[in-house]
From TrEMBL:
One of its GO terms (molecular function) is helicase activity. InterPro entries: DEAD-box_helicase_OB_fold. Residues 5-79 form the DEAD-box helicase OB fold domain. Transmembrane segments: none annotated. It comes from the Eukaryota. Keywords: ATP-binding, Helicase, Hydrolase, Nucleotide-binding. It holds the Pfam family OB_NTP_bind. The lineage of its organism: Eukaryota, Metazoa, Chordata, Craniata, Vertebrata. This is DHX16 helicase.
Length: 99
């Protein structure tokens, strides 16, 4: 597998998705934010994996990588259901949000 897919296999439980109010963890819908020092801070990809959460003024994701939501179901069918990973790209997203 390619490197991002291998990382997804190891950190599948650290997935977040772009939603209307920002990012939310996939499994528990906990609001999280990309750390301002991240290279992806301005990019706002739809799906992310993070290495750690750091709480300062908000819960920030550090060491983030963009992923494909399909990889989560491939590497962790025991953890995710297909309905949790529906892309929702057909729904309207805020302007300039998500690639």
């Amino acid at each position: 597998p390619r490197c991002p897919q291998a990382i997804t296999a190891g950190f599948f439980y650290h997935a977040a998705r772009l939603a209307r109010g920002g990012y939310r963890t996939v499994k528990h819908q906990h609001p999280v934010f990309i750390h301002p020092h991240s290279a992806l801070f301005e990019e706002r990809p739809r799906w992310l994996l993070y290495h750690e959460l750091v709480f300062t003024t908000k819960e920030f994701m550090r060491q983030v990588i963009e992923i494909d939501s399909a990889w989560l179901l491939e590497v962790a069918p025991h953890y995710y259901q297909a309905k949790e990973l529906e892309d929702g790209s057909a729904r309207k997203m805020p302007r300039k949000a998500g690639k």
